[in-house]
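Narrative of activities, Objective 1.

The group set out to show that a structural description can be obtained from nothing but a protein's sequence at a throughput compatible with the screening campaign. Below is one input-output pair from the validation batch, recorded exactly as produced.
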Amino acid sequence: MRRSTGLLALMLIVCLVAPASAYVDELRRTPVVKAVESVSPSVVSITAISRKQGRSVFPNDPIGRLFQERFFGRLPQRSASSLGSGVIIDGRAGLVLTNAHVISGAETITVRLTDGRDFKAEMIGSDPDFDLAVLRIKDAKNLPGVKMGDSDDILIGETVIAIGNPYGFSHTVTTGVISALNRTISTDRGRSGNFIQTDAAINPGNSGGPLLNINGELIGINTAIHAKGEGIGFAIPINKAKAVVAELISTGHVAPIWLGLFGQSIDQDMALYFNLKSVNGMIVTDTFPDTPAQAAGIKAGDVLVGMNGRSLRDVDEYLTRLRGHTRGEYLMLNLLRDGKRVDIRIKPAVMSRKTATALVAKVWGLRLKDNPRGVGAVITQVGKGSPAEKAHLQPGDLVHQIGNRSLRTADGLLAGYLNSRMASTVVLKVQRGRGLYWVKLRR
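Output recorded for this entry:
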C-alpha cells in the first residue's frame, strides 16, 4: 500500500512539473507516427529520363511504321521522364530497391532524399517479370536504411503503412490494412502471383515505395493499383524480393527456372480415368533428363495437386507460381501417385538459353534469330511435321508477339516460351512481307 501511494505521488509530481504539451505530444506519437519517422529518411523519389521515338501515326502496326519511316524518315527522338519511389535497403552501399518499370529504358536516373539532396544513381540489375530493380546511389555515404521485415509472418487485417511519391507529392504517407495474401494479377507480361493486397492508398508514383508494418519494418514493395477499383493496391512480398535482390546484385538479372517436367490440366474424363476426386491439379506428362524433376523421381502419371502446401488448380497456376520463385529456393511439391500422397522437396534449375532454344525447336518446331533490321525475331527453320509447319509458318517470317508479350529479340520468344510452354494453343503475331497476321500453334 505504501509503495502504491508513493507511485501515485511521483506521477502527480511528474504531471505538475512536465508541460502538458509534452504529455499530449506523446499521446499523438502513435506507432504509425513512430514508424514513419523512423523510415522516411530511407524513402527516395526517383526520376528516370529516357529517350523515346516520336509517336507514330501507326502505333500498333509494324507495317505502317515501316511505311512511315521509308517515306518520311525516322521520327525525331524526344525526352520522356517517369516518376516513382524507392527505398534504401543498404545505407553503407547506397543500394535502393524499386520497381523495374519505374526505371525501364532510362538513360539517367536521379534519386532525391527526404532532406532535399539529389544524387545520380546507376542500375545494378533489373528484372521486368518480377518488376524489381536495384540501384546504387553515386557519391553518397552513410545513408539511412530500412529495417527488413518478414512477409511470411503477415496477418490479414493488420495495419500497414505506405510511403511514396504519388503524382509527384513527395513522401506521402497512407495507411490501411492487409486485405488479402497470395493474390494473382494480370500484367502486360502475363499473370503473376503471390502479391500482398492492401487498401492503403497506392497511386501512380507510389510504385517502388515501401509497404511497412506497424513496427516500421519493410514487408513489401508497392507495385500496382487496380485500375477499376478504389482501395485495392498490391505489393511484392519482401521475402520474394530478397531472393531477387540477391541475384540482381550478383549477376544483374534473374535466371529463368524450371523443374524439368511437362504436364496438362485435368478435365472430367482424366479425373475418372485416374480415379481422382476433383479436376484440380496437373497431370505430369513428361520429365526431361538431367533435371530436378527426374532426379527427384517424378514420373509421367503423377498428379501435382499442390505446391508449398497450397493447392493447385491447373497448369496456368503452376507456371504462374513457379515464376514467383528463384533458383536459390526449395519447393515442396504435393503429388498423388497411385492414390497416395507423396511430398517431394525440390530445388529448381536454371533454364539456360541453350535449353530453351532446344525446347522451342522440339516442342514448336521453330528456330529463330534476332531481326537485323529492327525489333522482332526472324524464323530461320521450321521442323517437318511440327506445330509451326502445320500453322504454315516459313523461314523468313518475322515474329512480333507471343501471346500478350511483344518481342524485341529472339530471346524475347524464348522468354515467352517459358510462360507458354505447356499451353495447348499459343498465339503468335507474325509478319510476312507486308502482311501481318495471327498464327495459332497447337501442340
